[in-house]
Specification:
Histone H3 K4-specific methyltransferase SET7/9 N-terminal domain; meiosis; cell projection; mainly beta; about 190 residues; cytoskeleton; cytoplasm; 2 domains; flagellum
Length: about 190
Amino acid sequence: MSDLSEEEEEAEEAEANLGEYEGERNPEGERHGRGKAFLPNGDIYDGEYEHGFRNGQGTYRFKNGACYTGKYVQNKKHGQGIFFYPDGSKYEGDWVNDQRHGHGVYTYANGDTYTGEWFNHNRHGQGTYIYKDTGAIYIGGWVNGNQEGEAELIYLNHRFRGKFLNGNPVGPGKYIFDIGCEQHGEYVQSEQVK
């Protein structure tokens, strides 16, 4: 999963004071209304401003190929938006204070997708993860980016229902096969001898 680098975050923060600007201004001379900023580092922002801050709808294009189109509040991504990452992945959904937060869909560079709840930039809450290569589908809980809680893992000809902890099955669960058989059991974490 891609995230903004420190360089990209600093570029966005410095944008209010640097670079060339074409657009509307208020009587105090602040960027206000519709405008386009060309930053010294090669980034470009085209969108709405309010009292010198990106505020409202806009598109921020990073020189590394990343691009965000969506809502801003006080220079931060906030509201609905789409972020295209340089590796080809994409997030479309809710943003709060520059973080993926709320509901969103992340399409990874390898074709996997996650649709569900986000909290502070992590998969957190209920969500569905589809593994493109195998066709497997995980439907269930997430905590800080890890599969955790009650869930169902669906494969092509069988499924597993049970609990997960740190991405692994744990405790009571069952496999249900398409031919009608079920296997009940309990996952126990074993210690490995080093």
